[in-house]
Write a structure and sequence with these properties.
The complex is a heterotrimer of chains A (385), B (204) and C (254). Chain B has 204 residues and is of the alpha/beta class. Chain B has 6 helices and 13 strands. Chain B has a single domain, classed as Rossmann fold (3-Layer(aba) Sandwich), CATH 3.40.50.880. In chain C, strands 1-4-5-6-7-10-11-12 form an 8-stranded parallel barrel, surrounded by 5 helices. Chain C is globular. The chains are: A mainly alpha (385), B alpha/beta (204), C alpha/beta (254).
Chain lengths: 385, 204, 254
């Protein structure tokens, strides 16, 4: 179920520390047999002092700054919520730390009931206000369908970018300087760019070519809007889990115990489009199983053994009953058309115009932005090389 | 395979949806062969007694088929709401006789200040007899009811009761024939238990 | 022994769910995709849902395919209202999977259609949706299309509805609609005394305490804002009504 490199031959080499192998696209090994993704995680861990006193001190310093800069405002930070573990737990921590967050939700109109229940129970219990941007359902589906018809992997590109831009827009409007994100490179690993590229130009191009409805409510972050947000509004991105010890299992327990929160069965499965992408589309059309990233991360940290991880990876991802039917209903296609498109040759984001060449050219500038946390460091590492 | 009789009355789609969700093979049909080949037959119904019976009476082949299924082949049958009521001999709602598969009469709820007519909403039920149709149902089960007429209590046939001030038959059984006054296809997990039990009784 | 219902009442506009205040389309919030929203409500195992199509009401055109798609997501009863012109319309809606159809007050001008529908589908399948408010010392009927109060008195109106044979009444206090100020208990009390037809009270519901007051009057609780927003002045979040969430006794996996 892993990506097959076109140059794979003979012996498969596995990373000494995780489960990436020479079969996976973009994986390289150093002389000791450790893969570049492990090294990337090491480098980030070193840079941020994850789980160490240094990391904790740095986070404390940042928290003080957040409180100071936001003291005359109603909210001192923005936290994106999806109903998932990472963001739900982050809300809990934010309150523990004495912050006054505004929860921001981007609704792509494919939420599952667990997502909405979890958001409601956590926000109610913690007495945190909510801002939601709901994209017009027909527009959202038009963009999804455009990506579907284009035959590329990134069905969720519009959600990912829409989320990121909504956070920025709300922070700017409410004059909030900080956005806290629940990303953890320790528990999630770093997703290789190959099957997960998104930027405003890519979305716009796919939509122009394969979409039908005008974009009116979808928050499209073009390069100029991106720059404006960075240079003019200067919003700072903080990822607390990059500094401190974070365990998903522990987080789930606390959330369930304190808030009646419910686990939704897997990374990103709280949204149906995401569930479709992970459990049907990517495995079926691209022979890609993104569970490898989380499993590799778990092996890397010793939470799971290599054998266990490989066994799990060898089984098909669980597909919610009726998910394909639901997808067809929303996309307004019949099952025959669904099968036809699934069987068509897959395409890559690299076949379409994107901002990537521009990001690469501006690498040094983005290095500076990342240093000041005006963009996440992982963005710099993924997009500028 | 369970057949759902399509005689032009009743919410066949909803019943089929729930069966499909339960992974139970089912078919909405009015064809003789498909009905006779099925292991269990569901008779739905929404509307008025006379309308339902006259629709059936105007489709003689279909009427004979379902009669054969119930009376001769003796395979399991489940009537839902009006589909349950037309199994009786007659109803005070109409003048046309019913199928007569159960020797009772359908009556109207007496009009009074306390009694709301129709009996509309979720109601708790009481299981009067142990039956495979009720396997796995918790003690305090509830179902969705929506009716102005009802089948009275009858020791011989009532297996589940409910109340609209007055007690009435929420479900009956006569040999191979079951009838439920409520809508299992609109009663979430409780209804799913009834339909999956019926499928198990039918498919063996 | 019976269970009172908590029933979301949702507004469709151009194939999208919206929430207005006092049915004023100039003051509306976009809620989301109808199919997904009903799927969520179905997963919550809600009692019942009412869907009123504002566009269909204006244009007299029913989006039957959308209704079919919505109905196929639901294992609880559904009511539809908006733009029903004849018996065939009503029958089509029932056949795609809705249990009840609703006529708004203005349709009482066409009582023949109402009687015909009740005769054909049964009174339990035909609902009357009444919008009312307090004006000039009395309760009056409100016409949601012209957005004006009529001079029809609520009490007379109710008697007419009961006589016609409606199986259920949805009564919305237009002044409380979208206000988060609680139900119009006095009005509901009065209405429940006048008729023995089942009543769904609507307009202003905030929490379980509100619903309890309505239950004590033997009416069912219609809800809108509180299942669509986290709280007053908050972002959209389709969520579980009040504190009923803990009362799920049986789940699909049992």
């Amino acid at each position: 179920m892993c990506q097959i490199s076109s140059t794979s031959k003979g012996q498969v080499q596995f990373c000494k520390r995780c489960i990436y192998s020479s079969k996976n696209v973009g994986v390289k090994f150093d002389v000791t047999g450790v893969c570049n993704f492990c090294l990337q995680v090491d480098s980030l861990q070193n840079q941020f002092g994850t789980g160490s006193d240094r990391g904790l001190k740095e986070l404390e310093r940042i928290l003080l700054k957040i409180k100071k800069m936001g003291r005359n405002q109603k909210y001192d930070c923005v936290i994106g919520v999806s109903g998932g573990t990472d963001s739900s737990y982050l809300l809990y921590l934010a309150k523990e730390w004495g912050l006054r967050p505004l929860a921001v939700h981007y609704d792509n109109t494919w939420n599952s009931s667990i997502a909405t229940l979890n958001i409601a129970s956590v926000l109610n219990a913690l007495d945190i206000d909510l801002f939601t941007h709901v994209v017009d359902n027909k527009e959202a589906d038009d963009i999804f369908k455009a990506f579907w018809n284009a035959g590329v992997a990134e069905l969720e590109a519009s959600t990912d970018l829409g989320y990121a831009y909504t956070l920025r827009k709300v922070a700017a409007k409410k004059k909030i300087k900080f956005i806290l994100e629940g990303h953890s490179f320790i528990t999630e690993g770093i997703t290789p760019l190959n099957r997960n590229y998104f930027d405003g130009k890519y979305i716009s191009e796919i939509h122009n070519r394969f979409g039908t409805l005008p974009i009116r409510t979808y928050p499209l972050m073009t390069f100029s809007r991106f720059m404006k947000s960075i240079l003019k509004e200067r919003i700072i991105f903080i990822r607390p889990y990059w500094y401190i010890e974070y365990s998903k299992e522990n987080a789930n327990q606390i959330l369930t115990k304190n808030f009646g929160w419910k686990y939704y069965g897997g990374h990103h499965l709280e949204n149906r489009m995401s569930a479709f992408l992970h459990s049907v589309y990517l495995p079926g059309k691209f022979d890609t199983d993104l569970r490898i990233n989380t499993l590799a991360a778990q092996v890397r940290t010793g939470k799971t053994s290599r054998e266990q991880a490989l066994t799990e990876l060898s089984s098909r991802p669980h597909v919610e009953f009726g998910l394909i039917k639901y997808f067809c209903k929303r996309m307004n296609i019949d099952e025959e058309e669904f099968e036809r498109v699934m069987k068509l040759a897959p395409h890559s984001w690299s076949e379409f115009p994107t901002y990537r060449p521009l990001f690469k050219r501006l690498r040094l500038i983005f290095r500076v932005f990342a240093y000041f946390n005006l963009i996440p460091m992982s963005f710099y590492k993924k997009y500028c090389f | 395979m369970i057949s759902i009789v399509d005689y032009g009355v009743g919410n066949v789609g909803a019943i089929s949806n729930m069966l499909t969700f339960l992974r139970i093979e089912n078919k909405i049909t009015s064809h003789k062969d498909q009905i006779l080949e099925s292991n269990g037959m569901i008779l739905p119904g929404v509307g008025s007694f006379d309308k339902a019976m006259s629709k059936l009476n105007n489709q003689l082949a279909l009427l004979n088929t379902i009669k054969f299924f119930a009376e001769e082949s003796k395979k399991p049958v489940l009537g839902i709401c009006l589909g349950m009521q037309i199994m009786a001999k007659e109803s005070s709602e109409g003048i046309i006789p019913g199928l007569g598969w159960v020797n009772t009469q359908i009556c109207k709820f007496a009009n009074s200040y306390e009694v709301k007519i129709p009996n509309m909403g979720w109601r708790y039920v009481r299981l009067e007899k142990k039956d495979p149709l009720f396997d796995g149902l918790p003690f305090s089960s509830k179902f969705y009811f929506s009716h102005s007429y009802y089948m009275p209590l009858d020791q011989r046939y009532s297996i589940m009761t409910s109340e609209n001030v007055e007690k009435f038959s929420a479900a009956f059984k006569n040999e191979n024939i079951y009838g439920v006054q409520f809508h299992p296809e609109k009663s979430h997990a409780y209804g799913m238990k009834i339909l999956s039990n019926f499928a198990r009784i039918s498919n063996g | 022994m019976d269970e009172r219902r908590i029933i979301p009442i949702l507004q469709l506009e151009n194939g999208r769910f919206v929430k207005t205040k006092k049915f004023d389309l100039r003051n509306k919030t976009y809620i989301g995709d109808p199919i997904n929203t009903l799927r969520i409500f179905n997963e919550f195992q809600l009692d019942e849902v009412v869907i009123l199509d504002i566009t269909a009401s204006k244009l007299k055109k029913i989006s039957i395919e959308l209704l079919r798609d919505i109905a196929s997501e639901c294992f609880m009863p559904l009511t539809y209202g908006g733009g029903i012109q004849n018996l065939k319309d009503a029958e089509n809606i029932i056949s795609v999977g809705f249990e009840k159809i609703s006529f708004n007050s203005q349709y009482l001008r066409n009582s023949t259609l109402i009687s015909e529908t009740i005769r054909s589908l049964g009174s339990q399948a035909v609902v009357c949706s009444i919008d009312y408010g307090w004006l000039d010392g009395g309760y009056r009927i409100f016409d949601h299309l012209s957005r004006k109060f009529t001079n029809i008195e609520l009490e007379n109106y109710l008697l007419q509805c009961t006589d016609l044979g409606f199986g259920e009444l949805i009564i919305t206090n237009i002044q409380r609609e979208g206000s988060w100020e609680g139900y119009d208990i006095e009005g509901i009390k009065k209405i429940c005394r006048l008729t023995s037809v089942p009543i769904i009270a609507n307009g202003g519901a905030v929490n379980q305490t509100d619903a309890q007051k309505v239950f004590e009057l033997s009416a069912d609780a219609g809800v809108s804002s509180s299942v669509l927003f986290l709280k007053n002045e908050s972002g959209v979040l389709v969520n579980f009504p009040f504190e009923r969430r803990n009362q799920l006794e049986l789940t699909y996996n049992d």
